[in-house]
Specification:
Distance between the termini: 57 Å
Largest sheet: 11 strands, mixed
Radius of gyration: 30 Å
Length: 301
């Protein structure tokens, strides 16, 4: 600890206890050591801090003027020491995660449960957004880490990323639809039917698939809500393409089929290089250990 802070603590303890002897006992210092530290402060500052009498010590008028600042420094030092201990042990703190529905629903709950088994004091905040919002939050330091699909439309080389899993994009049709008889569904088949786009602004993974194939979907509706799309498909308003992960434990009467040819995307945890806190790094390690990053394609079952 800084010697100046030790002197401040000696002064605070002496005033609280009203005695240099009692302060020395509480701080496990010698009485002469406490007296010397207070004398050093008085000499350095050029003021008298304590009045000494047979009944003990008390602050002088000058001492009362500076004492609140001395106490504030000691309190800050205490809080700093606690935080350093927390960070070094990665046992407590808070983690803010930028995410979207499929990850928040099907990945994070089990990982958070597993992580908190060894880090019960860690608090989580899940901030829901679209891809561009999540990327901005990571860049601005508003979240510790965020989840994004890769490759993005505009790759960011200034953000670190670690693969969590590979997710397959699936064709989604109503139960009983003619295309449900196929094991795989081609983009050409989907382009002939009314189509519901999963998109918001520039966050659009689906339209480029058709563009690269020289096709144009008959887009009648678009939304960023995966579950709204499932409901619309169930009610015969159109067909769609959704990530396999969001179709896990799907409650709607719809069929999902792989695309022909298959299309996958990588889901990655994204963060600012060198700025990930110890507790957030421990959480990310837990996530990667449980997810088996890059080991396979997310199941649609």
């Amino acid at each position: 600890m800084d010697s100046a802070v030790q002197k401040y603590q000696a002064l605070v303890e002496t005033v609280r206890r009203g005695s240099i002897t009692a302060a020395a006992r509480g701080l496990a210092y010698s009485q002469s050591g406490v007296s010397r530290m207070i004398a050093d402060l008085e000499r350095e500052w050029g003021i008298c801090l304590l009045e000494r009498g047979r009944k003990g010590v008390r602050l002088t008028a000058d001492g009362e003027q500076v004492m609140p600042f001395v106490e504030a420094i000691c309190e800050d030092q205490r809080r700093l020491s606690e935080r350093v201990a927390e960070v070094s042990g990665a046992q407590s703190g808070s983690i803010v995660v930028g995410t979207f529905s499929s990850v928040a629903t099907h990945i994070l709950p089990s990982v958070i449960e597993r992580f908190r088994a060894g880090h019960a004091q860690v608090e989580f905040e899940l901030r829901m957004g679209d891809y561009s919002e999540i990327e901005s939050w990571v860049e601005d330091g508003l979240v510790d880490l965020g989840f994004l699909p890769y490759p993005p439309q505009v790759p960011r080389e200034d953000l670190a990323r670690e693969a969590v899993l590979v997710d397959e994009l699936m064709a989604v049709v109503p139960q009983g639809h003619a295309l449900a008889a196929k094991k795989r569904i081609a983009l050409e088949d989907l382009a002939r039917e009314p189509f519901i786009l999963l998109e918001r602004g520039r966050d659009n993974e689906i339209s480029p698939l058709f563009e690269r194939a020289g096709l144009e979907p008959q887009a009648r509706l678009s939304t960023w809500d995966d579950y709204a799309i499932m409901s619309m498909v169930e009610n015969g308003l159109g067909l769609s393409i959704l990530p396999s992960l969001i179709l896990t434990r799907c409650p709607y009467r719809i069929e999902r089929r792989p695309l022909d040819p298959p299309v996958t995307r990588e889901l990655a945890a994204v963060y600012r290089p060198g700025l990930l806190s110890s507790v957030a790094r421990a959480f990310l390690d837990c996530l990667l250990e449980g997810a088996g990053a890059g080991d396979g394609v997310a199941s649609a079952e």
